[in-house]
Structures are given as C-alpha cells and as structure tokens.
Amino acid sequence: MTSQRVLVTGGAGFLGSHLCDRLLDAGHEVLCVDNFYTGTRPNVEHLLANPRFELMRHDVTMPLVVEVDRIFNLACPASPVHYQKDPVQTTRTSVHGAINMLDLAQRRGARILQASTSEVYGDPIVHPQAEEYWGNVNPVGIRSCYDEGKRCAETLFFDYRRQYQLPIKVARIFNTYGPRMHPNDGRVVSNFVVQALRGEAITIQGDGSQTRSFCFVSDLIDGLLRLMDTTDDVTGPINIGNPTESTIRELAELVLELTGSRSTITYRPLPEDDPRQRCPDITKARQLLGWTPTVSLHDGLRHTIRYFAELLEQPVPPAVR
Ligand code: NAD
Ligand code: UDP
User: Fold this and answer.
1) CA angle (160, 165, 167) in 5-degree steps
2) CA distance to 13, 179, 200, 312, per residue, from 315 (Å)
3) Best CA proximity match to 62, nearest among 31, 96, 94, 39
4) Ligand 1, residues 58, 76, 79, 174: which to mutate, most atoms within 8 A of Cβ?
5) Is there a smaller number of Cβ atoms within 10 Å at the N or the C end of the chain?
6) Within 10 Å of residue 253's Cβ, how many Cβ atoms?
C-alpha cells in the first residue's frame, strides 16, 4: 500500500493511540490531533521520536487546515462519566467536530471515517442490533449529548456524501476495551479490573443483568482499518464489535476469577437511560470487510489485567477529569 498522510483526531485517547500505532506500522505518516480532554500524552509518548508521527494540540470544534489524504475522526469523550461532565461541549465536539473535519476532507479531497457508536441504537428494542435498526434514543436525557451528537454526525457524513460526493465511511463501534484505557476512565471494564486489582469493591450498577458485548482493542482497530480501505461505494454505517454478549454480573465474576481478587461486589443504582441490552449483528462487517473478531473476552481481559497490574505499580498517570 502506498504511504499516506493520515489525520487521527482523538489520537491521544484509548482507541486513537492504538490506531496511530497501527498506521505507523503500516508505513503511513500520522498527524495526531487531540485537545487532551480524556486522552493523555503518555498514550503516544512512545511515538514522539518517530519522524513520521506528529502530535498537535487542537480542539476539533475549531476549523483545521492541514494537508492530509485520510481522516479518522475519533475525537469525542466516550465514557458516560466524562461525556456527561460537560454535555454541551460533548455535542459540540460531535457536531462541530464533524463539520470541521468534513470541510477539511472536502477541501483536500480526503477520505474520511467517522467513529460512530452503538449508542445510536439507544436502549434497543431490536436485538441483536443490525444497521437497518433506527434505534430507541431519548433525545432529552443525560446520555443524549453523546447519542444525539453521534447521530447528527452520521447525518452530516451522509449529507456531505449526497451533496458533495465525499468519500465517507461510518463505523458503529460497540463497547471496546484493552490496554491504555485510563484507570479513571469510568467505563465498566477498566473500573472492574482496577477495583479487583486494588482489592476494592466491584461496583455493579443496577442488578447486573444488563448486557454488553465486549470487543478487544486490536480486533476493533483491525475493523476500522479494513473499513477505511474499502472502495468508495462502501460507506457503512457498519457495526464493528464482538457479538459475544455478557451480563455485567458475568463480567464482574470473570474479572474476579482472572485476577484472583478477593474483592466483594457492591450494587449501586442503575443510571438513567442505561441500555438494558446490546449486541451487534456483524453480518455486514463479515461480508463487506471479511472481518470477524478473534480475541475472546477471556484472553482480552488477561491482556488488560496484565496492563493495569503493571500500571498500578507506577504512579497514577495524569488525571483524566
Ligand atoms: P477516549 O476518551 O479515550 O478518546 C477520545 C479522545 O478524543 C481523547 O483523546 C480526547 O482527549 C479527544 N477529544 C475529546 N474531545 C475533543 C475535542 N473537542 N477536540 C480534540 N480532541 C478531543 O475514548 P475512546 O474509547 O478512545 O473513543 C474514541 C472514539 O471512538 C470516540 O469518538 C468514541 O465515541 C468512539 N467509540 C468508542 C467506543 C469504545 O468502546 N471505546 C465505543 C463506541 C464509540
Ligand atoms: N457499569 C457498572 N459499573 C461500573 C461502570 C459501569 O455496572 O463501575 C455498567 C453500566 O451501568 C452499563 C455497563 O456497565 O450498564 C457498561 O457501562 P459503560 O459505561 O462501560 O458503557 P456504556 O453504558 O456506554 O455501554
């Protein structure tokens, strides 16, 4: 493949930093743009000496003029705890960020991929969720800043395609976990692993019967790269996630087993609008990308536990808000 100049917004975050690694490994030049809202410099510190890597502090709600061939638009806090801290900024990041990156793509004739989310399905009534399902989203709840922001970003992507023939790709990412999640990220896998390793109580919200389907980060990045490399007629939206569904209680028990921790389990109220069930139908990803996840929850958790075990021996990395 010919080397390209690739922009990764949100590149200092959890998924973005892994994407930067993989793009550099493939021989591309990478421009990583991040405002460090939830991302951290240590996530990309190991790349700073690479002459094909550039790190730029920039907020995607502001226009950006750079020379790039491809854009992966990942900038947006993804953990409910963080996206609900400044909900107006979350919507602004999704919507203004999408417009700014689409305008850049249009100016440059660049191909652009949006990191959308399973949250566009809201609290789904259809199960598992296929791309044709329009979702069940509360437009005025505490999760709406994220869900509706991402839905509007999808709309913008498809309107830029219809109006300006822009080559777009939309990936609907389902819950993904792995090394480089921040210990204070607030999402369930990092919370449970950190709690188990510290011997603190595991905090299950609700009765733990709600489900999620967890994808290991290497599989997810592989799916994004495959989608970006498809021909222009493949736009998505396309689900990328692991279809093995677990209850949150099962996840807690597996984390306890794999860490050998003696942490207890404590129950907390279920947050408002927390989806009851979530599982991707990945038929399209299999057919169009030849992609299927390969890392089991068991193996992915072992990698993640090893990462956090080493991390927690060191001073805690710079705070995520
Ligand atoms: P993350 O919070 O680790 O990364 C998000 C990154 O975006 C951070 O580096 C943050 O500093 C940056 N950012 C936020 N607002 C910005 C702004 N206005 N300007 C510039 N940078 C900004 O989260 P993640 O898990 O790596 O998620 C990356 C993307 O994937 C997000 O768009 C998220 O919505 C999407 N996604 C992730 C998951 C998942 O399970 N990890 C699931 C669905 C969708
Ligand atoms: N959750 C939990 N304990 C935690 C954090 C989350 O039980 O410490 C639950 C949360 O209520 C939800 C599920 O785990 O039902 C996944 O939460 P997360 O924030 O990881 O992702 P999302 O809800 O966006 O899928």
Assistant:
1) 85
2) 19, 16, 18, 7
3) 96
4) 76
5) N
6) 16
Cα-to-centroid distance, 284 and ligand 2 (Å): 26
The pLDDT tens digits for 257-310 are 999 999 999 999 999 999 999 999 999 999 999 999 999 999 999 999 999 999
Q: Is 175 in the pocket of ligand 2 (CB under 6 A)?
A: yes
Dump pLDDT digits (tens) for 130-147.
999 999 999 999 999 999
Ligand 1 residue neighbourhood (C-beta within 6 Å)? 9-10, 12-16, 34-39, 59-61, 74-78, 93, 97, 115, 117, 173, 175-176
Q: Is 220 helix (H, G, I), strand (E, B) or coil?
A: helix
Structure tokens at 162: 């219809």
* Burial grade of 231 (CB within 10 A; 0-12, 13-18, 19 or more): exposed
Nearest residue (CA) to ligand 1, atom 4: 13
181 Cβ closer than 6 Å to some ligand 2 atom: no
In the chain, residues under CATH classification 3.90.25.10 are 188-212+243-279+294-312
Q: What is the CATH number of domain 5-176+215-240?
A: 3.40.50.720
CB-CB contact of 118 with 241 (8 Å): yes
Structure tokens belonging to residue 74: 């990942």
Question: CATH number for the 188-212+243-279+294-312 domain, one of 3.30.540.10, 3.40.50.970, 3.30.10.20, 3.90.25.10?
Answer: 3.90.25.10
- Cα(147)–Cα(142) distance, rounded to whole angstroms? 10
Count of beta carbons in the 10 Å neighbourhood of residue 157? 26
ipTM of the complex: 0.99
Q: How far is the CA of 236 from the centre of ligand 2 (A)?
A: 26
| Confidence (pTM) | 0.97
Whose C-alpha lies nearest to ligand 1, atom 14?
Answer: 76
Helices (H) and strands (E) in the chain, counts: 9, 13
Start-end ranges of CATH 3.40.50.720 in the chain?
5-176+215-240
Per residue in 110-119, pLDDT (tens digit) is 999 999 999 9
